[in-house]
Every structure is written in C-alpha cells, then in structure tokens.
Amino acid sequence: MNWFSQNAEQVLQELNVDPKQGLSDAEIQSRLEKYGENKLKGKKKKSLAALFFAQLKDMLIYVLLGAAVITLLIGEYADAIIILLVVLLNAVIGVFQEFKAEKAIEALQKMTTPRALVRRGGDVVEIDSKNIVPGDIVVLDAGRYIPADLRLTESANLQIEESALTGESVPSEKNAARLFEDPKTPLGDLANMAFMSTLVTYGRAEGVVVGTGMNTEIGKIAKGLDETQTDLTPLQKRLAGLGKTLGYLAIGICVLIFIIALIQRRDLFEMFLTAISLAVAAIPEGLPAIVAIVLALGVTRMSKINAIVKRLPAVETLGSVNIICSDKTGTLTQNKMTVLHLYTHRKFLDVPSEGTATAAESTQKKLIQTMVLCNDATLDDGEGTGDPTEIALVVLGNKYHFPKRELEAAHERVAERPFDSDRKLMSTVNKEGDHYRVHTKGAFDSILKIATHALVNGEKVPLTDDLKADFLRAAEEMSDQALRVLGAAYKDSDEVVEPDQMENDLTILGLVGMIDPPRLEVKDAIRQAKEAGITPVMITGDHQHTAAAIAMQLGMAESLDQSISGSQLDAMSDDELKQKINHYRVFSRVSPEHKVKIVNAFRSHGNIVSMTGDGVNDAPSLKNADIGVAMGITGTDVSKGASDMILTDDNFTTIVAAIREGRNIYNNIKKSVVFLLSCNLGEIVAILASVLFFWPMPLLPTQILWINLITDTFPAIALGVDPGDKDVMKKKPRDAKESFFAGGAAFRAIIGGLLIGILTLVAFYFGLSEHGYQLWSGSIPEDVLTYAETMAFVVLAVSQLFYSLSMRSATHSILHVGLFSNKYLIGAIILGIVLQFAVISIPILAGAFHVQMLTLRDWIIVIAFALVPLVINELIKRFTRSANN
Ligand code: ATP
C-alpha cells in the first residue's frame, strides 16, 4: 500500500480513524492483538548454554582441563573430579553473574525506551512506544523520535532528521499536504511520511500510524538489530590488561618452579600440579566478572535514586567529575512558573495570586492576548500540559478573563514559527477580524532586536533609545528579583505572513515577570558538591540578572561579576575564554553552541565536566562533556539518546547523589580488586617460599583451586556492594588519570599477600612441629603432612575471609566503619567458614581434598592464626593514621 500517493483523508478512512478522536480502547486492544507490539525484534539473546560455554573459553580453564586429563591418565581420579567440579562451579557462578549483570542493564534500557504522544479517545496521552498500533494518531514536536511509520496528516514547519534510515544527516523538510504518484519515489523524498526511529528536529505535526514493529521501513532493514552495547569500561580494560600481565608472570613462575624442581629432583608430577596451582593462584580470573557485577549492581542502585546510567563507563567517570554544568530551569528551579507582574510602558501591574482581575488598559489586554495566543500549552480543570512558561501565561489569561480556548476560537491560528533556544522567540499568525496579526513572544533582548515600534498609552510610536531604556530598566528590575522576563510584540498584516517574515518590524507591547522558585533541596546539594571539591556552574538561556540572582540565592555564585552572557562569550576568542573560564559560575543567555564552547574550555584545563541538557540542540554539548546528563521528564528523546545518564526527576540534587554513588562504586571495586590480589599473592608467597626453601608443599593444588574459585568469590562481591564511606563527599574528586593502585592500594595488596602467605606457612609449620617435625625434616609421615596441610588450608581460607573486613576502609579501623555494617560481607564470611568446615569434616570431601577433621582445639588455634593478618593490618592503619595527623 503506497500511503504517500493517497491524500490524508483517504488514509484516515482506510485506517478507520477520526483524527480528532483517535482510536477507542476496544479498537486499540483488537489491533494490538492483530499486529503485535510495536517493537523491532532484536538479536536473539544468548542461551544459557551458550553463556555457559563462553565461560569455558579462558586460558585458565584450558590449563585446568589439561590438568584434569593428566590426573585422569595417572589415575588420580579424586583430583580429576575436583578440578572438573571447580571448573563447572566456576562456570556456573560466571553464568549467574553475567546473567544478573545483563538483567540489570536490560531493566535500565527498559526505563529509557522512548515514549510517544498519541490521541486516543479524544485526549492526547503519552504512552510507551511499544503499545502503538496502526491507526493511532501521533502528535510530533521537536526533539521526539518517530515511534512508528506515519502518514502525516497535518504539519507546521516540520523537519525530520532521517539519518537512521537514509544516512543523510541534513534534516528533510516535511509537508503533510504533498502527494507522490510515483510508487518508486525514494524514501528520502517522501515529504508526507515520517519513519520510525528518525527524529523531529523542528516544528510540529500530526500523523496516522501506517506501520508498526517489523512492518516499518526501519524494521525491513533492521533484521537482527543488536541494541545492547557491551563496551568495557576503562577500568575493566585496565584490569583486563593487569590480568594478562599477571597471567604471563604466572607462566614465568611456573616454568621457574619446574626448573627448580628438576634441579631439586622433586616428584615431577607433584610439581606439575603445583605449577598449575600456582598459575591458578596468580591469574586473577575472577576480576572481570566481579567488576562487571559490581558495576551492574551499582547502576541498579543508582536507578533507584533517579539516575539512570546508560553506559557503564559513566559510573567510573562520575567519580572524577569536578565541574557540574547545570541548566537552571527545572533542574535548579522547580519549573513551576507564576506570572507576578505585567509591564506596559511605565506601568507595572501586579497580578493577583488567586482569583480574577481586570486589566484596565487596552495595551495590557493586548499584551495578555498575545501571551495566550502565541502559546502551545493547554489548561483543563487546572491541569496544564506543555511548557511551564507557557502554562503560566495561560493561567494569566484565565485570571484576566481571556481563556485560551475562547480566544483561539475567535482568533484562529493560521501560521506559526515555533520556539527554539537559539532565537529565543516564538511567533504565531492569528486571524484578527478581516486581517491577520503576528503575535511574538520571547526573551526581551531578542524582541528588542526585531522591534521598530512600541505601544505607549495605546498608541504606536517609533522605538527611540529612551523608550528602549524604559523597557530595559523595567526588565532589569524584574530580573534582579530573580524573575524570568518575557517580552511580547505584534504586527498587523492583510495577508498570512510567511515564517521568515514574521519576526521583523514588530511593535512592543510590554513584559511579564514570572517567578520560578528554586528547588529547596538544591542549596544543600550545592554545599555538598562544593565540600566534595566539585564546582557547580549554571548554564541557562535565561537573562543574566535573573540567572545571577538565582545562583546567588543558591550559593553557586557570590556576585554578578561571576556571570557572563552569551554575547560576551561571542566577543571572546577561544583562547581568552579558556584563560578566564574558571572565574565564571553563571553563563546566561547562552545558546546550545555556546554550551559546547563552555564544555571544551573547562575540559582544556583537565577538568572532568558533566553537562545537563534537554533540547534537540543540546546533543553536541552532551556528547562533548565527560558525562552528558539528560532530563527524564522535560528532556527530548534526542538529548536522552546523546546522554550518558538520565535524571528521572530532572533534579540537580540527583546529579550530586549520582556522583556520590559513582565515587562509592569505584572505591568498592578497588576494595574487591585489592582483596582478590592480596589473596592470590598470599597463595603465591606460601608456595613459592616452600619451593625455594626445599620445604614440603603446604597446600595441594586442588585446595588452592577451591579457595581461589569458591571461598574468595563471595567476600569479593560483598565488598563490591559495601555501603560506602560516609566521608566520601568530603574528599576531592579522584584524578581521572590516577592509577588504579594509587593511594597505597598496591602497598595494601602486597602487605595483605605477605601476611596471608606467611601465616599459612606458620600454620603449616605449627602442624608439623605439633608432631615433632620441622619444615626441613627429611621424610615426614603422610598423616602428619595431611594434618599440617589441613591447618595451612584452613588458615589460608579463613585468614582471607577475615582479611576482607579490613579492606572496607583504607584508613579507618573496622570498628570505626562498623564491624557489622556490611551484612553481605558478614554473610559471605560465615558462608566461607561453613564451607571450609564442610570440606574438612565431611569424610568424602575430606578424602578428596586430602585433609582431615580438626579438633576444637585445632580450630581455636587456626582461627587465632587467621586473625593475625586482619589485626596487623588494622595496626598498620592505626599507625599511619597517627603518623598523618
Ligand atoms: P535553562 O537553559 O536553564 O533551562 P531556559 O529555560 O530559560 O533556561 P531556554 O528554554 O533556552 O532556557 O529559554 C531561553 C529564553 O527564551 C528564556 O529566558 C525566555 O526568555 C525565552 N523563552 C522560553 N520559553 C519560551 C517560549 N515558550 N516562548 C517564547 N520564549 C520563550
């Protein structure tokens, strides 16, 4: 069916829908059943089995499988089974983690799926795009994604960017009234159609849905579209690099041990297994999975505090942000506008807060009429829809007996030029008796530029410098009180005025001043941000004085001197701006291009900048910033698409809260990684020392495998969800270039490793000496060796579990942090001890692992040994704390 060759009425008839009413509920239901959901079918998800086998594609696993085969050949069946079981369990844990991480990301993606405005049952409602059916009437405005294929039924200056479909990034002009006879007209030329996944860059329109889901043009080419992006975060990449290095190191050590063993004439098979166990100990195979799950759990937590992180790398960057560039309207303020004053030449009129009033003068009346007619908002039963600035103006109209509906019925709109934040103006052409009137409203400085006359006492007079000064003074007076000032102007014409001719030769009517109270909680968030070494900066389209007044109320700026306007920015060279940028806290009357300049200037000093945006034109600045933040409520789909994070409550406070979470998540990842490395190092120390000093092996390969892959995993994850440091926002932001091991992390890992390794050896030695043997005694009976190995095995596992507590803070003692404040960690430690108890107490397991039951006395000794690394580390912390003070 070529919808583009039929006129709009025919299409609507064909689809059986009245454009003024839209579809009924029953009809929607039956069409939804018939055509299915409006979704592109993504790439098939990996099955559980595929996920499982993916886990096995790992260097370490190959090594283990090789070891299993060799142990089988030699007839050490128990060892072979343990190795295989550990491989299996490791894969299962891996699958579970990946599954969980994927689910978390999926849930986040769901929260960010575009919504669409449709007319249903006579009302315009916002719904999930997936519920759209053929025949739905869709309302389009600038910044929205087209939710399905549409035949346009009405359009005003509509422009659509269709690069998703045609590759052409210059927006094409659309016009509902055009018809195309040629059935082979290329997609890019079909001006009366709008296609799914393209986006409105300008203007307004309505259209009827002619195709949904896979029956759309994009659906035809999107077979197997993969929407999930799986890019690694910089930290994950760095850790993968670290993993590789440690892997090579492990292989080197294994070769070394083998050579030493050859020289020492040790049992070659045992040494082969020892070498493998060392490889297992040294390769930090758990790292990537643990970082992925900690990030996934972190972003899930962040979504609960209204910050949806779209790309995982953003979590890390958030922790380093030191400049927050924020919009004013809606983010720092409540976006609940109320008109307080009207100004016509030399006359202020206070608007009553409740009830109605009458405007005495014709100019005042005209001013209100223009504000109401040049307006896209609606107000029904006190419920407004649309831009809050415009809703405030409709409310103003109601107070002065100019209800919008009636006014519009009497003065039909015949043409318009929509608002955009570059011009900062909006115009409509409405009928005015037998002729037409252009109504323009917008930023007063913009109005001044296009006005030639003003109405003074009802008379149109040329706009002299004196007159301008009068109006400007009034505008400034209101701005200084933090009011948002909007000007209005008009001109009459005998004909309908074309959009490019609307905004010239205008006659100024006057001004309105509206209040938009700051959000109460923001002041506190700003104080917190400053304490945390972060500089909040306001970037707004509003007037310099209004912006500065609000910034001062909120504590963002101290004086007007710290503010600069867009035109002053234009007068500066890029270099000059870079030099001075750190001085400014308020950027006013900026357009979206200025935002890019500002971001770049801040970044040139090495700052890590987050930038908010909501409009279509904000995409470049959101992309340029280190963290682009889009508004969930007022933001356009375009800005959301370009952002790294979306605020579901549009609130500045949420940015600060997200930064806090970002810092915590990074710190927690660091805790997990340092913990895992300490554990691995502990194992290496114990084994390497034994080989070098000709001692018997304190640990069997299967025991190391067990500890490394099973008992370590849970505390590491629990550290990743640590509640976080209370003082995290009292510290300076982390330098983004800082090494992961900065701030003593490497030192902590090494100390931990040494302590754990040495204590394991001590336990082993203790076990031997209990029966009168030494490390260097020649032939030690099998049962004595087993006893000593069991001691070492338990001490290694339990000391790691205890040591995890110490990892919760690099500086504070565990008692200060709260011994039980991370319940997961306590749970993981208890679970680890229980597992360890099971392995040595259940005969069949004990046999397989070559260990034996321990008596209560032994357990007490073992626990005492296992506490030593924790205690020493706590003492070191205490010592460095007092040395630093
Ligand atoms: P922020 O960038 O902090 O959100 P803002 O909302 O003031 O601030 P814009 O939406 O770009 O930024 O508006 C810039 C200016 O344009 C406003 O100060 C106002 O004077 C004018 N303006 C805003 N909305 C409209 C509108 N609907 N019609 C006409 N003019 C408007």
UniProtKB/TrEMBL annotation:
The chain crosses the membrane at residues 48-74, 80-96, 245-263, 275-300, 673-697, 703-721, 741-764, 784-803, 824-847, 859-876. It catalyses: Ca(2+)(in) + ATP + H2O = Ca(2+)(out) + ADP + phosphate + H(+). It is a multi-pass membrane protein. Gene3D superfamilies: Calcium-transporting ATPase, cytoplasmic domain N, Calcium-transporting ATPase, cytoplasmic transduction domain A, Calcium-transporting ATPase, transmembrane domain, HAD superfamily/HAD-like. Keywords: ATP-binding, Calcium, Calcium transport, Cell membrane, Ion transport, Membrane, Metal-binding, Nucleotide-binding, Phosphoprotein, Translocase, Transmembrane, Transmembrane helix, Transport. InterPro entries: ATPase_P-typ_cation-transptr_C, ATPase_P-typ_cation-transptr_N, ATPase_P-typ_cyto_dom_N, ATPase_P-typ_P_site, ATPase_P-typ_TM_dom_sf, ATPase_P-typ_transduc_dom_A_sf, ATPase_P-type_domA, HAD-like_sf. Signal peptide: none annotated. GO terms for biological process: export from cell. Its EC number is 7.2.2.10. SMART domains: Cation_ATPase_N. GO terms for cellular component: plasma membrane. It is found in: Cell membrane. Residues 2-76 form the Cation-transporting P-type ATPase N-terminal domain. The keyword Isomerase does not apply. Belongs to the cation transport ATPase (P-type) (TC 3.A.3) family. Type IIA subfamily. NCBIfam families: ATPase_P-type. This is P-type Ca(2+) transporter. The lineage of its organism: Bacteria, Bacillati, Bacillota, Bacilli, Bacillales.
